[in-house]
Amino acid sequence: MLFPQLAALALSLSLIPLSHAAETVLGVYMFHRHGDRTPKSTPPANLTALGYSQVYTSGQYYRNRYIAANAALKINGINTDIVKQSQIAVSAPSDVVLQNSAQAFLQGLYPPVGSALGTQTLRDGTNVTAPLNGYQLIPVALVTSGSGSEDNGWLQDASNCANAETSSNNYFSSAEYQATLAATNDFYKSIAPAVNRTFTDSRISYKNAYIIYDLLHVAEIHNATIQSADLLTPETLFQLQTRADQHEWALAYNASDNMRAIGGMTLAAEVVDFLNKTITSQGKNKINVQFGAYASFLSFFGLAGLPAVNPDFYGVTDYASAMTFELFTNGPAAPFPAASDLQVRFLFHNGTTNATNEPVAYPLFGQLNLAIPWNDFVTGMSKFSVGTTERWCTACGNTTGICAPFPQAPSSGSAGSAQSKQGSGMSNAVAGVIGAFVTLAVILGIQALILLLGGLRVVNKRMLAHPVMQRESVELGKM
């Protein structure tokens, strides 16, 4: 973690406008949250019209950033109008909200091309125009893990990782949890009339902080009338959000028991693997967009040390939030640069991204520089990445299904410890569960990593919509 003065300096550096004049972007990996949806407490959850609009708008922004003919950061060699399928990879878990969000995003990223570009002439001279004004069909790969993420009320329900579930459950026996549960008991009972049509009295407590907040957050957006609305003052809603943030952060990341951050670990491996493929393919693999739930955001934030830069990274990300990893060079793009000439930049925006609410660059791994040399980026990610089936099975303690072939060694309770014993290479995922990693020494490209992610989400739009946020919330763990 950074010392306070270094954290302040890092944050101030992130506010300096970035100059991209001499840069060439070679590849981009993006992890994106779904748009606005109906509440988790009344499944099945569905993407709303507002959510559709949010992710579509985000797609339009990133088109103008990376793909459009006049894009300031156009990915080198990417097709501008008609998508080239080999240049793009898109995936999402088997979840209606996330799958539909991915499709909506793609409509903004590569919109219909119209009759001029969307018409083909057959051999017999017949002209055939694609339906929907040249609507472009882009496949969304199905990630089998994380199925039903937005219908699950508990953060680890979709992880399929036994030790991650155990680790998160440990929070409920911790002194912090017990103290917060007792301290907030009267607060939650006071708002019971606003939620008792959905939750029984026994469920209205800090134990269910997120799904209670989620229900009321959705109601505040969509419902013309809310039962006992007079109870939901701005202060009460803010307290509900703060407690939901505290609750979900504790389930997604713990510095001394990092197995609960399995979503961030597999995400890190996927990022490195894809960007490495951009390098080994000489720039043929250009953009990867993964849709997932907020649990993976929180896990990655903790693993990468981002709360030390800005404490707002403790908060649950808002609908349509996105974090992006840009692989770029400051030199010529042809011939393709050597690894030593490549850098990576991490950007994040909380909520829907558009021309007036753009992503902000933040330093990773406790460093001060916003751009990290490629080899240093791989080293930093390898400290917590989990990217092979065997490593995932060992870390998670799973012994059945795809994990049956892998004997379980005595667990140290830490994925990082298990990884240090096994080296830092990555390989292909089996049956779409995990994905591939790269060996740290040679940075070999293998096969695509399919994330084991799951989760949920919701937060106040004041959080991280701008790089500096003065949160007036109660300190985590205190009233």
TrEMBL record:
Family annotation (InterPro entries): His_Pase_clade-2, His_PPase_superfam, Histidine_acid_phosphatase
Regions crossing the membrane: 429-453
Pfam family, one: His_Phos_2
CDD domains recorded: HP_HAP_like
Signal peptide start and end residues: 1-21
UniProt GO MF annotations: phosphatase activity
Keywords from the named record: Membrane, Signal, Transmembrane, Transmembrane helix
Protein family according to the UniProt entry: Belongs to the histidine acid phosphatase family.
PANTHER family: ACID PHOSPHATASE-RELATED, PHOSPHOGLYCERATE MUTASE-LIKE PROTEIN
Protein name per Swiss-Prot or TrEMBL: Acid phosphatase
Protein's organism: Cryomyces minteri
